[in-house]
Known about the structure:
The protein is α/β, with parallel strands linked by helices and 351 residues long. The protein folds into 2 domains: 2-29 and 43-71 and 325-344, no CATH class; 79-316, Rossmann fold, CATH 3.40.50. The protein is 35% helix and 26% strand. The chain has helices at residues 14-25, 46-50, 52-69, 111-124, 157-165, 180-192, 235-244, 275-284, 295-308, 326-344, and strands at residues 2-3, 72-82, 84-93, 101-104, 107-110, 137-143, 147-154, 214-224, 247-254, 258-262, 265-270, 288-292, 314-323. The protein has a 6-stranded mixed sheet with strand order 7-6-3-8-9-12, sandwiched between helices. α4 (111-124) packs antiparallel against α5 (157-165), α6 runs parallel beside α7 and α7 packs parallel to α8 (275-284). The chain is rod-shaped, with a radius of gyration of 35 Å. Residues 196-201, 204-208 and 266-270 have low confidence and may be disordered.
Amino acid sequence: xxxxxxxxxxxxxxxxxxxxxxxxxxxxxxxxxxxxxxxxxxxxxxxxxxxxxxxxxxxxxxxxxxxxxxxxxxxxxxxxxxxxxxxxxxxxxxxxxxxxxxxxxxxxxxxxxxxxxxxxxxxxxxxxxxxxxxxxxxxxxxxxxxxxxxxxxxxxxxxxxxxxxxxxxxxxxxxxxxxxxxxxxxxxxxxxxxxxxxxxxxxxxxxxxxxxxxxxxxxxxxxxxxxxxxxxxxxxxxxxxxxxxxxxxxxxxxxxxxxxxxxxxxxxxxxxxxxxxxxxxxxxxxxxxxxxxxxxxxxxxxxxxxxxxxxxxxxxxxxxxxxxxxxxxxxxxxxxxxxxxxxxxxxxxxx
Length: 351
């Protein structure tokens, strides 16, 4: 709730002046009695005691009318407009190995589902430890044997999250694989199409009546649980291309160690993640590598990315309002009606 004309509240200062003026102008009526002796032992009646109620209703009516004049209104929709942000491409693996289970809060879900849920928390915020990224351009690439753009770089983050939820683990062997290099290259190409640099801006407003949107930096967040075994480009080649275009890669290895059954015993065989490659692509571009084994550790990774990549210079404007002055006018009318009725009946002055 806010007020379109808050200056109207200055009229409240005139109410004491009006009251003082009305008291000085009031003429007291008199009656001639032969003797006041019989009246000395009688106190004021309840009508005299409660007569100030009439004055109170008059003041209340004026206050309510002033509040209505200030035009209270309710914000129906909020439009955020940022002048600076970060361009982020999330690159997620949806190969068959992402179907393995991992812990998410008090549940066990497949890795793909955990990645999608925590990505939504990172983008939209979770009202706890992730504030969301409302000022940034964010897009999504998914890869298995082939890399596909699921969502281009957008400010419409609800749409992005909706499209991300539709990404599923590949169902056929022909589509299965882990083309990490192609996923990075496609995301880097998407980011490269944007203007960047200290003085370059993205501004689609033809009338130029809004501040231009400046891209502060470009990053790729890569999430995978496997080893590159498909695609035309190697991860290192794609990382060098990203570095050439000024793009930083943050890589995340998803999942815990893998085990095999060896004569009835579960023997660890390593993480199943090519950590050396993921560290290399991050290092080549000035990024960082993390390992996430459950939902909590993945949130912690996103918290670190939040602290490393901050947006700034945002502004907020309200686009739609619902006027709320009529209830105040109606209450003022009721107060005025009550004052007129009481002053003409119970608290009527005589003569």
